[in-house]
Structure formats: structure tokens, C-alpha cells
Amino acid sequence: MNEEIKRQIIFVLDDDNEVMTTALGESDLDQENKQMNRELIKKHEAIIAKVETGDRLAKEDLDLIRGANEIHLNDESNVQEHHHQAVALNEWLDRMTELGKEDAMKILEGYLDKDSHTPAKVYRALHTLWEESTPNDVIEPPFDDEGKCLKCGSKVSFADVTDTLVFVADEIVKRYDGDITNRNCIKCTYPKQYPEYEHYDKE
Ligand SMILES: [Zn+2]
């Protein structure tokens, strides 16, 4: 680890600890959050000690460093100060962090998403590889641009929608329509419930 990376790690962890310590002094933070802050401050201090003695950093350490570095990475206005070092640290973290299957999948999918002409079969190929590497089939199949399940072709899915409501006291004064989350093909994911909805696929 070079000196510049070392300095930046210590800087981002110290900086985050300072913010959290200040928050601990404010009474509007609830007990649970205060406890979380205290634990995180301790973990950050332990990482700083490891960096100073040259001990090996665990995956969790690298994740915490990445989290603390994020705010400096996003702060492009602060070019003179720490943005440049934050970019260097982020690249270093990328090299140090072992790429899991899920991360690899997200990176590839992110690049495919940039091109609106990526055909559905490319996603399908990617997801087939992913499914083969995850024998217990934990990843739900996604949908093509017509909303059909890429795995089975069914058009019917269950989805959660998270709306944001503005409350004034107990009264809802505004509603922002939310995004769809947790969309699952019924046929693949809830086969027992599928017969109820099967007729939509036949229409
Ligand atoms: Zn399906």
C-alpha cells in the first residue's frame, strides 16, 4: 500500500468518524442510530490501526473504506482537496476487492444497459451463465422490454411499488408515484398461484 493511499484511507475514516461523533451529540438521533454510529466509529478506528501497522485488511474493512470514501468521490467540486485522492483510492479498492459473481453480473449488466440496442437475447445469455453458476437459483429471472419473463416468456408478474407520501401531521398532502421494485414472474416464482393468472398469457 503506498503512502498516498494510506493517507487517504485514514483521512476518509477520520472524517466520517468526526461527522458521526458530531451526530452523537445531537439529541434528535434515536438510540438505535447512536448505537450504530458508535459501532461504526470503533470499526473505523480498528481499520486505521491496521493501516498504520500494515496489517492485512479484510473484505469488510475494504467495504467500510469504500463507504466512507464515497462522499469524497462524489464531491467533484472539491477538486483541490480530496476528490483526486478519492478517485485513486476507489481504483485501488477495485483492484483489492475480489469480484463476486453478483458484482461481475452487475458490472456487465450496467454496460449492456448503456446501449439501448442491446438485444434481449444478450441479457438472456448473461442470465443463463449467471444461473448456471448459482445452482440454487436464487436470482429471479428478469424481463424483456415487452415485460415478458426472459426465462419462461410469461407476461404476468407480481411487483411492489413504493410511493413517497408527504404527510402534514396525519394528513397526506402529496403523493409521488414510486418505482416498481421486486418484480417477479408469477409462473417462475409463484407456480402455485400461476393458474389464477394463466388466462392473461393466453389472451
Ligand atoms: Zn417466468
Characteristic terms for this protein:
about 200 residues; two-stranded antiparallel sheet; binds zinc ion; alpha+beta
How would you describe the overall organization of this protein?
By secondary structure, this protein is α+β, with helices and mostly antiparallel strands. Helix content is 59%, strand content 13%. The chain is built from eight helices and two strands. It has helices spanning 3-24, 31-53, 59-74, 79-96, 101-114, 120-133, 186-189, 194-202, and strands spanning 157-168, 171-185. The chain has a two-stranded antiparallel ribbon. Bound molecules: zinc ion. Residues 141, 149, 151-152, 154, 185, 187-188 line the site of zinc ion (ZN). The site of zinc ion has 8 residues, from helix 7.
Helix percent band: 55-70%
| Mean pLDDT, all residues | 86
Beta-strand fraction estimate:
5-15%
State the distance separating the first and last CA atoms. 62 Å
Q: H/E element string?
A: HHHHHHEEHH
Largest sheet: 2 strands, antiparallel
**Which segments are poorly predicted (pLDDT under 50) over 5 or more consecutive residues?**
none
- Overall strand count: 2
Q: What class, by secondary structure content?
A: alpha+beta
Identify the strand order in the major beta sheet.
1-2
Small molecules held by this entry: zinc ion
Enumerate how many helices there are, as a single number.
Answer: 8
Which shape, going by the Cα principal axes?
Answer: extended
Radius of gyration, whole Å: 23 Å
Architecture blueprint of SSEs:
Elements: H1 3-24, H2 31-53, H3 59-74, H4 79-96, H5 101-114, H6 120-133, E1 157-168, E2 171-185, H7 186-189, H8 194-202
Antiparallel strand pairs: 1-2
Helix pairs in contact: 1-2, 1-3, 1-4, 3-4, 5-6
The chain binds zinc ion.
